[in-house]
Amino acid sequence: MRSRARSARTAKAPGKPRKTRTKASAQRPVRHSSGPPVEGDARATAHNASAGRVTVRVYRQGLGDCILVKVKRAGHDDFKLMIDCGVVLGTPDAGKIMIRVMDNLVGDTQEKVDVLAITHEHWDHLSGFTQAPDAFAKLAVGAVWVAWTEDPKDDLANQLRTELGAARQKLAACASALRATDDGATAEALEDIALIPLGAAASSRMTTKAAFDKVKARGNVRMCRPSDAPFEIPGANARIYVLGPPHDPTLIRRINPSTANPETYGLVMTGKGALPRGVVVALDSRDDASGQDAAAPFHARVTIPLDGKGPLALFDKPADDGDDWRAIDRFFQDNYVAGADWRRIDGEWLGSATELALALQSYTNNTSLVLALELGEPGKGDVLLFAADAQVGNWESWQTWTCETNGVKMTGPDLLKRTIFYKVGHHGSHNATLKGHGVEEMDGLKAAIIPVDEAEAKKKHWGSMPLPDLIAALEKKAPGMVLRTDQEPVNRASNVVIDDKYFEVIL
């Protein structure tokens, strides 16, 4: 385990290597404005970033992650960690936006990062590497970190890749069939749920795999495991731990909170267990503000709307063999094709496709590479948590994670207790941040940033994103320091840099 961790280092750390053994087992609350960021806004750039130990920059490209972490080093340039770079499918002017993001990152890092970590294979974490190829080509990368799920020598990784690959192929076939019938809108809805390009929309160069492969082609790839020794940052009293994904198929497949005792936010207990709050609201009222049929059995998050132009013809040509046939035709038109969308049978097969798309998204999220950066002495320092889009099983695995360094034993709950910064998982969704084994354990939380675009999430029928319940819970821990990238805080803290391209917190 120790040799694996050393192989990822970009330079030798001073002094003797530490003996390490790991085991995987007040400020008033900010009022947010609703307006878009202003071009060229540089109000906070005068803040002296050198005053802190670390800066965390979260870019504001929309629904997607691109993070730059700089750890200060005495007598050396900053250690620079880049995590992901992408924006969700369907974002207007996505190419221009990601070129702007990548250009800024390349310029502010002097065209070099020590580590580039790719957390998982979703477009909103990878698209920038194909959408901004010229800028990315200028960036020198010391090492590429990916999860063990990319290891071709790992049997479980191979099994997961085979399963996920088969799901992608089936969804791609569905998308191609839909586009062949001029139903591109439904094909795009499948892509929105799965968070990957599908079928004709995914050329050989514009797939998540192509983007991932482009990054890994930079070389010096480290396959990260929770059992690895911590990576000691050269020239700094700081280190990076790998918390997830767990090397456990049961935990990786645990993507949803339990119905008996929901572990996440945004869920409501009912007589039949836990349901997303949006489902409860819909079932309590026949007519909602959006005009959606509240009697539909599935939440809009996993429902593809059918063609709104009117009922589809049941038969290619009018029947001409008698009143009986016409009566049958009218029966099916009136009872199964016409009326509420969810009652129609012409698109019944899409139910399985949407379930498959949602499962593919969730399983991929749960393979997220999760990193914890510790500043200071092992077991005593402040922690910064980068959880990507990890879901329930990934989070729960940290409860049994342990690490021993120079006789100091640490646990996952201990790291959560000392967490001062949290990059909020999956844009603040209902299944990506735990309560009891998550936020409630973050006793030292000082700041959290949510990379989100609420307007775009609503366009995609993704429900409440970010969740008000989650924001409220984080605000209790870090009053006035829960930032969301789609809104500017009215009362900016002195250690927060606000730019039209990014938010940056100095810690």
Structural write-up:
- The protein is of the alpha/beta class and 507 residues long.
- It has 16 helices and 20 strands.
- It has helices spanning 2-7, 94-108, 123-126, 128-131, 133-137, 155-180, 184-194, 208-216, 249-252, 277-284, 323-337, 350-365, 392-397, 412-417, 454-459, 468-477; strands at residues 20-23, 54-59, 66-71, 79-85, 112-117, 140-147, 221-224, 231-232, 238-244, 267-270, 273-276, 370-375, 382-386, 402-405, 408-411, 419-423, 447-450, 482-484, 496-498, 502-506.
- It has an eight-stranded mixed sheet.
- Helix 6 (155-180) packs antiparallel against helix 7 (184-194), helix 6 (155-180) runs antiparallel to helix 12 and helix 7 (184-194) runs parallel beside helix 12.
- 46% of the residues are buried.
The low-pLDDT segments are 1-47, 268-299, 304-321, 342-349
Share of residues in strands = 15-25%
Q: Structural class from helices and strands? A: alpha/beta
Number of strands: 20
Radius of gyration of CA atoms, rounded to a whole number? 24 Å
**What is the 3D shape?**
globular
Specify the helix fraction band. 25-40%
Largest sheet strand order: 7-6-5-4-3-2-20-19
The protein's oligomeric status is: single chain
- Average pLDDT works out at 77
Question: How many H/I helices?
Answer: 16
End-to-end Cα distance: 31 Å
Largest sheet: 8 strands, mixed
List keywords for this structure.
507 residues, alpha/beta, eight-stranded mixed sheet, seven-stranded mixed sheet, 16 helices
Helix and strand topology:
Elements: H1 2-7, E1 20-23, E2 54-59, E3 66-71, E4 79-85, H2 94-108, E5 112-117, H3 123-126, H4 128-131, H5 133-137, E6 140-147, H6 155-180, H7 184-194, H8 208-216, E7 221-224, E8 231-232, E9 238-244, H9 249-252, E10 267-270, E11 273-276, H10 277-284, H11 323-337, H12 350-365, E12 370-375, E13 382-386, H13 392-397, E14 402-405, E15 408-411, H14 412-417, E16 419-423, E17 447-450, H15 454-459, H16 468-477, E18 482-484, E19 496-498, E20 502-506
Parallel strand pairs: 4-5, 5-6, 6-7, 13-16, 16-17, 17-18
Antiparallel strand pairs: 1-14, 2-3, 2-20, 3-4, 8-9, 9-12, 10-11, 12-13, 14-15, 19-20
